[in-house]
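User: Sequence in, structure out. Go.
Assistant: Echoing your sequence, followed by the structure tokens.
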Amino acid sequence: MWIKGMKRSAEDIAKRVASRRLKNPSWTSEKEKERLRTLNIGRKERLEHKEKRRKSLLIAFSNPQFKTKLSAVRRQQYKNGFTGSLGKHWKKTPEQLANKMGAKNPAWKGGITPLNTKIRNSEEYATWRKAVFERDDYRCFGCGIKSIGLEAHHIYPFALFPRLRLEVQNGITYCENCHAIMDKQKAKFVKVTLN
């Protein structure tokens, strides 16, 4: 029992929390947990709370009984098809993935992906880029550097010459810097030729 002016003991608080959970099971329901989780998105945890949580985890992991319980649980999970950490990272079957593709996906907006995006994300475009890089020996045509951040540049603009988009002869390898310079020059050239 609590009397005004007296501090509650940890046992008294634990009993009150347990009785609340029994009286109102929705207090710990999945819906309530999700609501509380969304409230905390974007909030930064204070350093003393982080430290306190870290210490409690260190104490828990140092307990050999905790380790055996965890490993037994994990062993059972691996038998049931568990592949990653706890939570949402469960392995999905091809049937589950197929049920969320295309028009069946809740985020589907009626196939409004632009043609430009479809082409640039296609396998044919990836093979074109690789063929251009291999032909140029993975070297920038502008400065001659052999680097990681290479880009395939269309000599005849992608938008203006649809027939030449995937022709290897229409591609040239540039690094990011040379490509930016070349695009500025090409924009001026296209304006002059079209006017």
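User: And one key feature?
Assistant: The helical segments are 10-23, 30-39, 47-62, 64-79, 94-98, 115-120, 123-135, 176-194.
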